[in-house]
């Protein structure tokens, strides 16, 4: 271990800005308060690189163009030899391969942790065995998947993403003010979702659900590669006049405070979605898909089978009609989300990394 502060590096090859990248950015900022020296290695034009640099998190530009990227492999090897981090945490397939290949033959190889954020099928389990000293997952469901592929249960830990409950808390007194701010109607209930707009977030189901709940206004918060396709679907379903696309909203708690129901009809691949935790923290009752990781994140939400449009629309209608039930789900959600309090989660992550370093020492 480095004298004084332990030194941790996060790597990320993704250019996107979603829950995974937000977690990395948050962890880098918060671990500094736990006595860590931190650094990010990522592509220069990626959002996580730019946002981390903007808040004075040390960054190194590594292109991570592909899994076998000789330039990035050489650069990572050089950085490791010069900086000698105690631990590197990789997050996506490309940076995991590059870091693994760069450090594999080093005589004084450092500790490597592979984080797994999504429940997508693991195409190749070998890099998890070859390169990682330990694996962290964002949900217990993902942990079970990796263990079923042959990883030792002692090497895989569940490290859910936390939610800042000082920021995400109920604030009913500002609802109408924020509805006006975002251009939302005051005479109809607001049903909203917050996610990166990509197909497996259930974006087409979201539109179909909106079409079957004519008395509500729907709002989609976020950006993503399928935004145009989702907007086209809304026009085809005849709900474009009742569906707003806000793009990225930095103060996302404000638009959550403007919602009556939080809708999350994802179809696959989820870990523990930060937006779902945030919505519950803000006291917004949720309607979600029946996916294992979503159940972990929202023990009090109304749960519907994936793709069952009628059950989703019925659940939303019940929530909008029965205010007592909505309040009960909101209260239960607030109680449930306390187990994901960011302070507790960061303490668990800090302890996990320190145990790995201590075991190598």
Protein topology:
Layout: E1 7-11, H1 19-31, E2 37-42, H2 47-54, E3 59-61, H3 70-83, E4 87-90, H4 93-103, E5 111-116, H5 126-130, E6 134-137, H6 140-148, E7 156-158, H7 175-181, E8 190-194, H8 203-212, E9 217-221, H9 227-236, E10 243-247, H10 252-257, E11 261-264, H11 274-281, E12 286-289, H12 292-297, E13 302-304, H13 309-321, H14 323-337, H15 342-360
Task: Give the low-confidence spans.
Answer: none
Strand order of the largest sheet: 3-2-1-4-5-6-7
Task: From the 3D structure, determine the CATH topology of the largest domain.
Answer: Rossmann fold
CATH architecture type of the largest domain = 3-Layer(aba) Sandwich
The major pleated sheet works out as:
7 strands, parallel
The 3D shape can be described as elongated
Strand content: 15-25%
